[in-house]
Design brief:
The structure holds two protein chains of two kinds. By secondary structure, chain A is an alpha+beta fold. Chain A folds into three domains: about 50 residues, Uridine Diphospho-n-acetylenolpyruvylglucosamine Reductase, domain 2; about 120 residues, Uridine Diphospho-n-acetylenolpyruvylglucosamine Reductase, domain 3; about 110 residues, 2-Layer Sandwich (Enolase-like, domain 1). Chain A is built from 13 helices and 14 strands. In chain A, helix 2 links the parallel strand 2 and strand 3. In chain A, helix 11 runs antiparallel to helix 12 and helix 12 runs antiparallel to helix 13. Chain A is globular and about 60 Å long. Chain B is of the alpha+beta class. Chain B is built from 19 helices and 29 strands. In chain B, the strands form seven sheets. Chain B has an eight-stranded mixed beta sheet with strand order 3-5-1-12-9-10-11-22, sandwiched between helices. Chain B starts with 11 loop residues before the first helix and ends with a helix. Classes of the chains: A alpha+beta, B alpha+beta. At the A-B interface, helix 13 of A face helix 4 and helix 19 of B.
Chain lengths: ~300, ~750
């Protein structure tokens, strides 16, 4: 039995905005895999909820007219993992969301919910950061598009205005074309876990595959919100594909990340594995891109 | 013969179709919902409550606090048989609600409401004023002078200190040329994590109280609810339906007394108390964290000259099973590797932590973590082969324990090691994994375990059985021993069918137990159900058979001594002729106008023996050194549990125990905030119970030496599988990396520390 004051079910995006305007205290519920847990814990007990779960227009993966990949915010993790566009263009995102929770959670959980939660450990978030994702928000004043780095304000807080909802996540063509990536989730067990640290790397190699044209890296749980690591990216960009580049890239992540010291994991431990994860994720990305790391 | 066959579980169809009724399925929807308010300090006193806001919540029926407990009936909680000797009774230190808070999560008040939402809302609105005292979380710090004292009668917080002194340790260590190996080995607080959380409901019927509870021990619940309410034990009726696991947590009285008391406070109305998972971790029972200090003095030839163990067992805030657990673990030490000169000091100590009680293995998993980790360290110190060293020093055939009279009748250890080594291809892998370099390394490790079935002669062992013949020749089988998911009912049916001589389908096990009608028994613990019940099943079955054959004599005029029951038929032994079937006989017996009889049998058997149940684990791991993680690749357990009654169920038992051992060795640990005593990870996300994906294929092997003391040649298998996997995994990591983890679990946090110290990373 859940302590819910009222539940309003939206039939369309416009309907959802209207319901949110009519009930300014109401919170949005999609799959409910986070919201209901928090209601049970008492954090959101007695909440008024607007359910957007029935809005099928917010589901699915498509190309927009500019060739960008548009992921409807209600698309479940299992649908993302199985989607042909994702599998062809950014398979790493499908791999990342396949590491969320267990099968039931992946069936009910949505990528929109995962990002709107604002938590640093979200398995989709570091990969979306690393792929320069754009968040599409629809509200009473129309549509806004915000880079995902700006969407996250602080732990548990995202840039969602009153009566606004996230309707899609967009990966621009220039962000994915020619890039190959790898995500490593470090957790204490093989399933049903949150990341101790998540690391998503992708690279674009030169045509002869001997140089790194561009490298991007993002972490979850290395700070209060998911983050990019500019020092490491700069250290790899334009460098030859070799062991030394990989080592330099990996070590330099410590310049930017600042994981917490907590009972979940010590800072020194998180920093240690962060370097190793960067090394492995870059190595794997280079391999996927067809490169060969010379000693 | 049905014993020895893997017949289908008697409850299989009900369980797979969802028809099985568990406690919550039986509770009427009119029940009030009770929720417990737990203290948010670790040590202190409740001064007052402000209930004004909470009482306003619509649907709240009544809020009871510790100050409403006027009659102070202190009660013990351990699921031990009662002792009529006051010197052997469990410590009675609990009240249904307490103002004297001893751990973060102690029970100080309860809300009774019409539904769960109202109960939860009211709970959040209660304000409590405390007087706070300093608290202590560490077992050895709690023993220091000046440490916060939890119970006045226990100076230095020591609940009990026992010793073993064999030979002369001090003199023995003077022998020249001895190698000293010393280590500290610690296991963490862990929890049972049975699928069905503890739940019970209670109501008044007439002047009596009925409690339906998810328990392993209905007759003990009856006694303790009677003690807690200060009423005659016969005024309490306890019903035990199917339960979704217990693993020892439900071998303790949890909230049955409180639930019954709450019902009495609301006019005897039905009250249900369903414990949320977060509270199950903290406010039920945990496994004792035990810190073991071992010193071995070894001769260069690989024999022990003298050994010493100090064990510090963290009891938490209340006595529960108390020192029994540490004492059992410490008692294994001089027996597993016998040595003439041994000193053991075992301490059980109160701390301001959740209450530790029984958990699968009862002190042995903690003891084996220490002893078998240490054995590996000894092998390393003297350059001995881990298998050969064990074979040389393990308890020999013919060893007899003077106290229990247990005898090691067979060469179980060597037979189990041989079988497990073959199953996992040990010899080849052990050689192959020597002296590896690189980031990713493999290792293979072994651990053995000591266990004994049942509790005689420390406690009563008594088993009662009833058989009631039906018109169709089938019969009901009732026992005080309980089905708790392990498959006991099926084993009982197999044994009963063999003794009486009927097809197993003709045995109807009455699984749901009711203390008003179920024969007395102290139920499921100490891996005793199959061993102990076997005695009363055999005795009662023979009595039933005698009565049936006596009636057959009336109907056939043949002498009873020439008759037998085979597959449900009355057979004349000399020529094997079927004279009649049991259905004809049973129907005639009931409805006969000449000689009507209701054929039943009932008897009690007092067991005055128990049995060693030994075995081993071999585990193979792959260690990713830079990532500080160990992945389990293969694992095999081999057990000598005597003759298996149902091999498929035995295998399932072993799989379950291995699974618990894997979590114990690699990931599980309940943590507490040093500043407040607050539990940190009391939920299934943050408490790292291992998942299906953390398990390789679990392999179970058996050696079947018929146990000579047993009614069916069988002995304990419930707890043994959980005793040796953790140290085997630890020793495999040691083999792979040369780093021996001292504190369980070998999770990434501990491996990071250990690998850093060893200079591997």
């Amino acid at each position: 039995m859940y302590d819910i004051k009222a539940l309003y079910e939206a039939e369309s995006v416009a309907d959802a905005i209207r319901l949110l305007q009519e009930h300014p205290e109401a919170q949005i519920i999609a799959g409910g895999s986070d919201v209901l847990v928090q209601v049970r814990e008492g954090k959101r007990a007695g909440a008024e909820l607007v359910s957007i779960y029935g809005i099928d227009a917010m589901r699915g993966v498509t190309y927009d007219e500019e060739g960008a990949i548009r992921i409807g915010s209600l698309t479940s993790f299992s649908h993302i993992a199985a989607d042909p566009i994702i599998r062809e263009k950014i398979p790493v995102l499908g791999e990342a969301v396949s590491l969320v929770g267990g099968p039931q959670i992946r069936n009910i959980g949505t990528i929109g919910g995962n990002t709107c939660n604002g938590v640093t450990s979200a398995d989709s978030a570091s990969t979306l950061f690393a792929w320069d994702a754009i968040v599409e928000l629809t509200g009473p004043d129309g549509i806004r598009k915000v880079p995902i780095q700006e969407f996250y304000i602080k732990a548990g807080k995202v840039d969602l205005r009153p009566a606004e909802l996230q309707t899609a996540i967009i990966i621009p063509k220039k962000a994915y074309e020619g890039y190959f990536g790898n995500y490593i989730k470090y957790a204490m067990r093989e399933a049903m876990d949150i990341a101790t640290l998540g690391c998503s790397v992708n690279v674009c190699l030169t045509e002869d595959k001997t140089g790194i044209r561009d490298a991007r890296i993002a972490y979850g749980v290395a700070g209060p919100v998911p983050m990019r690591v500019p020092t490491a990216e700069a250290a790899a960009k334009g460098q030859p594909v070799c062991r030394e580049t990989v080592e330099t890239f990996a070590k330099s992540v410590l310049e930017d990340i600042h994981p917490r010291d907590s009972w979940r994991a010590a800072k020194a431990f998180r920093e240690h594995i962060a370097v190793e994860m960067a090394k492995r994720a870059l190595t794997k990305s280079i391999e996927l891109a067809g490169g060969e790391i010379r000693e | 013969m049905y014993t020895g066959q893997s017949i289908k579980r008697v409850d299989a169809l009900d369980k797979v179709t969802g028809r099985t009724k568990y406690t919550d399925d039986l509770c009427d929807r009119k029940a009030y919902i009770a929720r417990v308010l737990h203290s948010t300090i670790a040590n202190g006193k409740v001064l007052s409550f402000d209930l004004s806001e909470a009482e306003k919540v619509p649907g709240v029926v009544k809020i009871l606090t510790c100050f409403d407990v006027k009659e102070k009936h202190y009660f013990p909680t351990a699921g031990h048989p009662w002792s009529t000797d006051p010197g052997h009774q469990d410590v009675a230190d609990r009240l249904v609600l307490t103002d004297r808070v001893l751990f973060y999560g102690d029970d100080i008040a309860a809300v009774v409401a019409e539904d769960e939402v109202a109960a939860a809302q009211a709970l959040r609105l209660i304000r409590v004023e405390y007087e706070e005292y300093p608290f202590v979380l560490d077992v050895q710090k709690a023993m220091e002078d000046g440490a916060p004292l939890l119970h006045e009668n226990y100076p230095n917080n020591i609940l009990k200190h026992t010793t073993i002194r064999n030979g002369d340790y001090e003199k023995a260590i003077q022998e020249p040329g001895l190698i000293k190996v010393e280590g500290w080995y610690e296991t963490p607080v862990v929890q049972h994590c049975h699928i069905e959380n503890f739940i019970c409901f209670a109501e008044k019927e007439g002047e009596r109280i009925t409690v339906v509870s998810s328990t392993q021990i209905p007759h003990i619940v009856r006694r303790i609810v009677g003690q807690a309410l200060g009423t005659g034990w016969g005024n309490i009726r306890v019903i035990k339906p199917y339960i979704g696991g217990g693993f020892g947590n439900k071998q303790d009285i949890l909230y049955e007394p409180l639930c019954a008391w709450l019902s009495l406070q609301v006019g005897g109305h039905l009250v249900k108390l369903d414990v949320p998972r977060e509270e199950t971790f903290v406010c039920n029972r945990t496994r004792h964290s035990i810190r073991n200090h071992i010193i071995s003095w070894v001769r260069p030839d690989g024999t022990y000259a003298a050994r010493k163990l100090e064990a510090f067992s963290d009891q938490g805030a209340y006595a529960s099973h108390g020192h029994s657990i540490c004492a059992k673990g410490a008692g294994a030490f001089p027996q597993l590797y016998p040595c003439p000169n041994v000193e053991v000091d075992a301490y059980t100590v109160f701390t301001n932590k959740p209450v530790a009680g029984a958990m699968r293995g009862y002190g042995i998993p903690q003891s084996m973590w220490a002893v078998e980790s240490h054995t590996e360290d000894v092998c390393a110190a003297i350059g001995a082969d881990p298998i050969e060293f064990r074979r040389r020093n393990l308890m020999p055939v013919g060893y007899t324990d003077g106290f229990s009279k247990n005898e090691n009748y067979f060469d179980s250890f060597n037979q189990c090691l041989d079988k497990a080594m073959k199953a996992i291809d040990y010899e080849r892998k052990y050689k192959e994994y020597q002296n590896q370099t690189g980031d990713i390394r493999r290792g293979i490790g072994v651990a053995v375990f000591w266990y004994n079935t049942a509790v005689w002669p420390i406690s009563l062992e008594s088993t009662s059985c009833r058989m009631v013949l039906n018109q169709d020749g089938s019969f009901q089988l009732q026992l005080g021993e309980t089905e708790i998911g392990q498959g006991a009912d099926t084993a009982f049916a197999q044994m009963a069918a063999d003794v009486v001589g009927v097809p197993v389908e003709k045995v109807h096990v009455v699984s749901c137990q009711d203390t008003d009608v179920t024969p007395f028994g102290t139920s499921a613990y100490a891996s005793r159900q199959t061993y102990v019940a076997g005695f009363s099943i055999r005795q009662t079955g023979l009595q039933l058979k005698e009565k049936i054959l006596d009636y057959a004599h009336l109907l056939t005029r043949m002498p009873a001594f020439n008759l037998d029951i085979r597959e449900g038929n009355i057979v004349r032994i000399p020529d094997g002729r079927v004279l009649m079937n049991l259905e004809e006989l049973a129907t005639e017996a009931l409805y006969s106008l000449d000689n009507s009889r209701h054929i039943t049998a009932e008897s009690t058997y007092q067991v005055k023996s128990n049995a060693y149940s030994f075995g081993c684990t071999i585990a193979e791991v792959e260690v990713d050194i830079p990532m500080c993680r160990a992945k389990l690749l293969n694992i095999v357990n081999c057990h000598d549990a005597g003759k298996l009654i149902n091999p498929a169920l035995a295998e399932a038992q072993v799989h379950g125990g291995m699974s618990m051992g894997i979590g114990f060795g690699l990931s599980e640990k309940l943590m507490f905030d040093e500043k407040t005593g607050r539990p940190l990870n009391n939920n299934l996300l943050d408490y790292k119970l291992s998942t299906f994906l953390d398990h390789p294929t679990l392999k179970a092997e058996f050696v079947e030496n018929a146990e000579p003391t047993s009614a069916f040649g069988t002995k304990g298998l419930g707890e043994p599988p959980a005793c040796s996997p953790a140290p085997a995994i630890r020793n495999a990591i040691y083999h792979a990396t040369g780093v021996g983890v001292k504190n369980a679990p070998a999770n990434p946090h501990n491996l990071f520390k250990a690998f850093s110290e060893a200079g591997l990373i």
